[in-house]
Amino acid sequence: MEEAYAHAVLKMAERGAEPGDLAKRLREALESRGRTALLPRIGRALRRIAERERRRTGTILVVARQKDALPAAREAGAPEAEVRVDEGLIGGWRLERAEELLDASWKKHLLSIYNRAVNG
Question: Cα(91)–Cα(111) distance, rounded to whole angstroms?
Fold first, then answer.
């Protein structure tokens, strides 16, 4: 049910409704139906929808250290990418786009070597 409310809020926002007005109208609608307990769940649903949309359309560059971001963005050909630091990477980078993953991380190569040594 919270997903339906979240989608309705997004539709209203796309049509140009002001955020303050949206929040007020949502609260009033929920109060009139006795469903104010849904407010936190609607907020979480909005975050999930936004994250899903960002993943679908956005480009994320994951690097081992912040100082590796600029060289990795150049190498990956994605200067507009959102940069995230992952302490689990030893070095290199990973580029995540909609339906695509380019993995040039050292961790991937080391795991590949390890698996070949153990299994082969």
Answer: 13
Contact 76, 102 (CB under 8 A): yes
Decide if 105 contacts 61 (C-beta within 8 A): no
Find out whether 78 and 95 touch, Cβ atoms under 8 Å: yes
Calpha distance 92→114 (Å, rounded): 18
Q: What is the pLDDT of residues 34-85, one digit of tens each?
A: 999 999 999 999 999 888 876 666 788 899 899 989 999 988 888 888 899 9
Tell me the three state secondary structure of residue 104: strand
- Report CA dihedral (35, 40, 46, 50) to the nearest 10 degrees: -170
Question: At which residue do the structure tokens 């960002």 appear?
Answer: 54
- pTM value > 0.85: no
Give residue for tokens 């936004």.
50
Q: Which amino acid is present at 9?
A: V
